[in-house]
Amino acid sequence: MFRFHLEAVDSATGARAGHWETPHGVVETPAFMPVGTRGSVKGLWPEQLRQTGAQKILANTYHLALRPGAEVVRDLGGLHRFMNWDGPILTDSGGFQVFSLSGLRRMDERSVVFKSHIDGSLLELSPESAMKIQEDLGADCIMCLDECPPATAPEEKIQAAVDLTTRWAARCRDAHQRADQALFGIVQGGVLPSQRERSATALLPLDFPGYAIGGLSVGEAPAQMYETVGFTTPFLPQNKPRYLMGVGRPVDLIECVTRGIDLFDCVMPTRNARNATAFTSRGPVKMRNLVHQRDEGPLDPDCSCRTCTQFSRGYIRHLFMVEEMLGPMMLTLHNLTFYQTLMRDLRTAIKSNRLTEFRAERLAALRGEL
């Protein structure tokens, strides 16, 4: 039901190109997953999302458990039918909210109890309930519940988070029932090599179908993130997909593909689009800037999306200045197309064994990126 095939490995870097078979289709890797936190990638219809080249999308356990509730999604046919998305879906476990909503939760060995940011009601996530919720949601790929410590945490706190994450991973594996879902273990450990090694080696005997690297892009410098990814991936199985959670900028995708990552997700292309920032082949463009007011040219002359082929920079800027909802929709379509094109080009470069040259060319073009 789930099969991961490596098609090529770049000889200079070890970067991988392959494909991952899931119950809802094949994902060509390396791949970027747009984020549909509450069951929707903001601003796009599912068919528009397909047009960007997206193969697999991500939704969030914590947010969907609050509204509309996992049982509601289950009773309406599961996430695929609920969203009218027939491709693969991944759900996060809520582990990132352990970090991002630290002021609204209490945690012990058993579980995490959140005070809802919506109405103050309580939501308990244990390894067992996180599995039940994700089984009700029905995603193809689901995640173990984990503890994600901040980048500035002391080593004893990071070690404790690694140990708790490992114990919770075993409970998740024991509680998980659905054979049509691939459960991923999550490697924690901050930017400390010794803790990353401890986490990875403790999770390997649990024999998950895939492994994620969590706890990055939470305040550490980009160079620290790249170093940590480069240190961690050699501990992970060659024959299973590797997922870097919550990363990144286009430069981050290039650098971490070079270090052996297969799957990514991040809100950056969609969130930045809603805030009038476009990713282009020549670096980021802030569309509210006055310089674009009379610009008849396309947003990105190297992009074939509808935004770039049918509308001018001047018009797109106008939409943002008058707060028309079409502006964020246009940039969302473009930004996701840009990301998917970058991933396609990375796959091509790996298969042709020229990733080193491609990396140098693209990083030079993206100089000044956010």
Automatic annotation (TrEMBL):
InterPro entries to which the protein is assigned, alphabetical: ArchSynthase1/Queuine_TRR, TGT, TGT-like_sf, tRNA_ribo_trans-like
Catalysed reactions, semicolon-separated: 7-aminomethyl-7-carbaguanine + guanosine(34) in tRNA = 7-aminomethyl-7-carbaguanosine(34) in tRNA + guanine
Superkingdom of source: Bacteria
UniProt domain tRNA-guanine(15) transglycosylase-like: residue ranges: 13-365
Enzyme Commission (EC) number: 2.4.2.29
GO CC term (a single one): cytosol
Region (RNA binding), start-end ranges: 246-252, 270-274
Binding-site positions, Zn(2+): 303, 305, 308, 334
Cofactor(s) in the UniProt record: Zn(2+)
SUPFAM superfamilies recorded: tRNA-guanine transglycosylase
Residues annotated as catalytic: 92, 265
Binding-site residues, substrate: 92-96, 146, 188, 215
Cofactor binding mode and count: Binds 1 zinc ion per subunit.
Pathway: tRNA modification; tRNA-queuosine biosynthesis
A single GO BP: tRNA queuosine(34) biosynthetic process
Keywords: Glycosyltransferase, Metal-binding, Queuosine biosynthesis, Transferase, tRNA processing, Zinc
Pfam family, any one: TGT
GO molecular function: metal ion binding; tRNA-guanosine(34) queuine transglycosylase activity
Family listed: Belongs to the queuine tRNA-ribosyltransferase family.
HAMAP family named among the record's database cross-references: Q_tRNA_Tgt (MF_00168)
Purpose: Catalyzes the base-exchange of a guanine (G) residue with the queuine precursor 7-aminomethyl-7-deazaguanine (PreQ1) at position 34 (anticodon wobble position) in tRNAs with GU(N) anticodons (tRNA-Asp, -Asn, -His and -Tyr). Catalysis occurs through a double-displacement mechanism. The nucleophile active site attacks the C1' of nucleotide 34 to detach the guanine base from the RNA, forming a covalent enzyme-RNA intermediate. The proton acceptor active site deprotonates the incoming PreQ1, allowing a nucleophilic attack on the C1' of the ribose to form the product.
Subunit structure: Homodimer. Within each dimer, one monomer is responsible for RNA recognition and catalysis, while the other monomer binds to the replacement base PreQ1.
Record-given protein name: Queuine tRNA-ribosyltransferase
Organism this protein belongs to: Caulifigura coniformis
Lineage: Bacteria, Pseudomonadati, Planctomycetota, Planctomycetia, Planctomycetales
Gene that encodes it: tgt
